[in-house]
Design goal:
With about 475 residues, this protein is α+β, with helices and mostly antiparallel strands. It has four domains: about 45 residues; about 90 residues, Nuclear Transport Factor 2, Chain: A (Roll), CATH 3.10.450; about 140 residues, Nuclear Transport Factor 2, Chain: A (Roll), CATH 3.10.450; about 120 residues, Glucose Permease (Domain IIA). Helix content is about 25%, strand content about 30%. The chain is built from eight helices and 23 strands. The strands form four sheets. Strands 11, 14, 15, 16, 17, 18, 19, 20, 21 and 22 form a ten-stranded antiparallel beta sheet that branches. Strands 10-9-8-7-6-23 form a six-stranded antiparallel beta sheet, sandwiched between helices. Helix 2 runs antiparallel to helix 3. It is found in: Cell envelope. Its cofactor is Zn(2+).
């Protein structure tokens, strides 16, 4: 075995160079000079110093980057993209955004129901049933109507509030309880509205209805005006071209939109040159009604006519030619031509003494009002269900419908009035007022009459506005 192999086997020296003789004798190895050792030590020292510099620079950058991390995270609150980037690089999980409130509004359509609307929002069926049951304590949500409005407010996926408006000024609210029970409470609420007083003037050319609509009055106010003066003016037969009317009434508005006409406060009609006035007055006994300028009730024992929509086809006469029997005979009543099925109202309070078939009169009803007046209604297509002998009826109550039964040439109502057992002309009848104000009431009424009649003479269409909330009585 040679000496070189022996040196490798024993490990040799780090500084052993290629100049060894390879003879295997240690004493013959070549030692480096002093200058060479100095250079080698200098090189090692330089390498050490360089390594320390690299370590120092690297450590400083690491510390610097750690100090800047909070600033980047702070920015991430406002920048979701930055938060995701920092989270991915640093290994931190960004906080999830808090749920927000959102409201969805629905206008109920033909096939909609409370269940189908909420089912479309992915509300669990058992929760829909539970909420409907809770709401049922104040309102039946099975009665949602086409055109009504329903709104659903959610916090994330949880329903916080449901509001259902079942009229222009009323609604139902279902709201999550403030505690942690997860339950709901239901209540009715009133939508804020404003009561205005409006004044309308009109000139009648053909009918009260057409003139009223042209003047801006609602159909309900026109019918109310007709009812108020029903004992003094027959707006189907008494009206003359050029007659005038004025009406002061209340109207409810929501956000400036008219939603409901209230009561008539005062009105005046000039018919064939004669003035008729009506003042709404709250009576001392708790009742209310319309009174003329003298403080007498406009309500009479009997209405002028038992029909709202009609024309007179045959008047009261001692000698009228009968179109079927072809001879002259008395006609002890008024015939009002009207479409089949037109409602017939009883002329006054009373009790039914006959309801059934009576020869030439066909379906026939007789009502006894008091010891003085009795009225009769003939040729009805049918008698209203529940109207029978002995039944009490109220003035204006529907008792039957126009027809052409018995001896009749077409649909009409034969109307008769008896006064103390004798036939009288219904159009000439002047029944007594139902009530007159007492002395104490007249003092209050006089001041009210003065104020309202002054308002009726004005030309304003909007006279006053009340605060939002409950309706006020009177003005």
């Amino acid at each position: 075995m040679n000496s070189a192999g022996s040196v490798r086997k024993r490990g040799g020296s780090f500084f052993a160079g290629a100049g060894a003789t390879g003879t295997g004798k240690r004493g013959n190895s070549r030692r480096p000079s002093k200058r060479g050792l100095a250079l080698r030590y200098l090189a090692v020292a330089a390498l050490f110093i360089f390594s320390l510099g690299i370590f120092f620079i690297t450590s400083r950058d690491a510390v610097s980057s750690k100090k800047e991390e909070p600033l980047i995270l702070a920015d991430a609150v406002d920048s979701p993209g930055a938060a995701a980037s920092v989270s991915a690089e640093s290994g931190l999980q960004a906080p999830s955004p808090s749920p927000s409130l959102s409201t969805v509004e629905f206008k109920v359509k033909g096939n909609d129901s409370f269940y189908t609307i909420l089912d479309g929002l992915d509300v669990p069926p058992e929760q829909i049933v539970r909420m409907a049951r809770i709401a049922g304590g104040v309102y039946n949500l099975g009665k949602v109507k086409v055109g009504d409005r329903l709104s659903v407010t959610r916090l994330g996926n949880e329903i916080e509030r449901i509001e259902y408006r079942f009229s222009d000024i009323e609604g139902m609210r279902l709201e999550r309880d403030s505690d942690a029970s997860g339950g709901y409470s239901a209540e009715l609420f009133e939508i804020p509205y404003v009561i205005e007083q409006r004044l309308v003037h009109g000139v009648i050319d053909s009918s009260l209805y057409e003139a009223g609509r042209r003047a801006g009055a609602s159909p309900g106010i026109i019918m109310e005006l007709s009812d108020i003066f029903a004992w003094d003016v027959d707006f189907s037969t008494d009206i003359r071209k050029g007659d005038t009317f004025s009406v002061l009434y209340e109207i409810a508005t929501v956000d400036g939109r008219a939603i409901d006409a209230g009561k008539v406060l005062a009105a005046e009609v000039v018919n064939n040159g004669k003035k008729h006035a009506a003042i709404f007055f709250n009576e001392s006994g708790g009742g209310s009604g319309y009174y003329n300028l003298q403080g007498k009730s406009l309500r009479r024992t009997l209405l002028r006519s038992p029909l709202r929509y009609r024309r007179i086809s045959s008047y009261f006469s001692k000698r009228r030619y009968h179109p079927i029997k072809k001879r002259y005979r008395p006609h002890h009543g008024i015939d009002y031509a009207a479409p089949t099925g037109t409602p017939i109202e009883t002329s006054g309070d009373g009790r039914v003494t006959f309801a059934g078939w009576k020869r030439g009169y066909g379906n026939y009803i007789v009502v006894k009002h008091n010891s003085i007046y009795t009225t009769a209604y003939g040729h009805l297509s049918r008698i209203k269900k529940g109207i029978r002998k002995g039944r009490k009826v109220k003035q204006g109550q529907v008792i039957g419908y126009v027809g052409s039964t018995g001896l009749s040439t077409g649909p009409h109502l034969h109307y008769e009035v008896k006064q103390r057992g004798r036939h009288v002309n219904p159009l000439a009848l002047k029944s007594a007022p139902r009530r007159s104000l007492n002395k104490a009431e007249l003092q209050t009424f006089s001041a009210l009459r003065r104020d309202l009649m002054a308002l009726l003479s004005r030309s304003d269409t909007l006279l006053a506005m009340n605060e939002k909330g409950k309706r006020k009585k009177g003005i």
